[in-house]
Amino acid sequence: MEKTGRKLKILWQPPIWLDLPLLSLKYLLLFFFLYLIAWKMTLGQIESFYTSPYNLAVDAKMLLFFMAPSGLSAGIMIFLVIISFVIRNFWCRYLCPYGALLGLLALVGPFQVKRDQETCIDCKKCEKTCPASISLTTRKTIRTGECIGCTECVSVCPVEDCLTLALPGKKKNSILLLPAAVLTTFFLFYAVSLGTGHWYSEVPPEVMKKFYSIIAELPHP
Ligand code: SF4
Ligand code: SF4
């Protein structure tokens, strides 16, 4: 989408006075959901929702939602597709509460992109490539909730070791360290879940079959 927008010359970067308030929307949505769940619901209500037929079949409910959207939902989805040709990653950048949660985690994550101010030639290739539209050339260390750790900026930088991925206190670590850490974390969780009997669902397939057969009627608890 971004490439098509660029080709059509309709790609637009909102100015900072508009970008910042728009960026806050996803955090407001995240805090709204956290407020509802952690503040307004009791532990009993959370447990009851967690084990409800609605929650157990919620993935299939989501599929149904996208297969037969209402007029309003379809309109919103079409708007999001069209606006993404004009503003890069509109949904992820401004509206996704899950993205906001990952952004907050990124702030405390161990990996950082670092820029060597001495060797930077200010070509701005990194900024043009960055999917999160981060202004890299004004920073020495990229520590922001908007960085998704894609390392695109590192790979396009024409100056060797000017942009690097590094742990705190280090100037450079291997770029393979990040995927290695992600895979290790995933397989660690997988092994622990499997070993403690938490990986497979305790709900028998026959029960899920029954829920799926009446999925359209399953009410929100
Ligand atoms: S791509 Fe590298 S050299 Fe170019 S502005 Fe970014 S950090 Fe500097
Ligand atoms: S790692 Fe990706 S998101 Fe982060 S600054 Fe570089 S290009 Fe942008």
Number of strands: 3
What does the main sheet amount to?
A: 3 strands, antiparallel
Dominant shape? globular
Q: DSSP strand (E) fraction?
A: under 5%
| Radius of gyration based on Cα positions | 22 Å
Uncertain stretches of 5 or more adjacent residues: none
- First-residue to last-residue Cα separation: 38 Å
How many H/I helical runs?
Answer: 12
Biggest sheet: strands side by side, in what order? Answer: 2-1-3
> Which structural category fits the helices and strands?
mainly alpha
Q: What ligands can be seen in this structure?
A: iron/sulfur cluster
Provide a descriptive summary of the structure in words.
There is one protein chain. With 221 residues, the protein is mainly alpha-helical. Strands 2-1-3 form a 3-stranded antiparallel β-sheet. The chain has helices spanning 2-7, 16-40, 43-50, 53-56, 58-67, 71-86, 90-95, 97-107, 125-129, 152-156, 177-195, 205-213, and strands spanning 112-115, 141-142, 163-166. The radius of gyration is 22 Å and the shape is globular. The longest helix is centred in the first third of the chain and has 25 residues, at 16-40. It has 12 helices and 3 strands. The mean pLDDT is 91. It has a domain at 1-108. Residues 115, 120-126, 136-137, 157, 159, 162-163 line the site of one iron/sulfur cluster.
